[in-house]
Amino acid sequence: MADIVDRITRSRMMAGIGPSNTAPEIAVRRYLHACGLRFRLHDKRLPGRPDIVLAAPHIAVFVHGCFWHRHPGCRFATTPATNSEFWANKFEANISRDAVKATQLKDLGWTPLVIWE
Description:
4 strands; 117 residues; Endonuclease, Chain A; 42% helix
């Protein structure tokens, strides 16, 4: 199926999707705050720069989007029909990078937690 918008418009739309402060991430933060938990955001000192860091229990929370991080069995983890080789490589790199960062966090004594969109 062909894209419904031209290439320039699609590029602008994709560029507007930011890596942090997404709607699912904000929902998780509101929930944690309402439960009385306090946390740091996007700590650059930790591998993978977790979305939410609970310092005292050493928990690093990642809020992953199903499309970008390939949530297994999810209907939103689709692959675009055009330029499929690029997308396959991109998604594979994302999955392997997530696994490496989780292992690095475990080696540092942190518990990585993934919350899917």
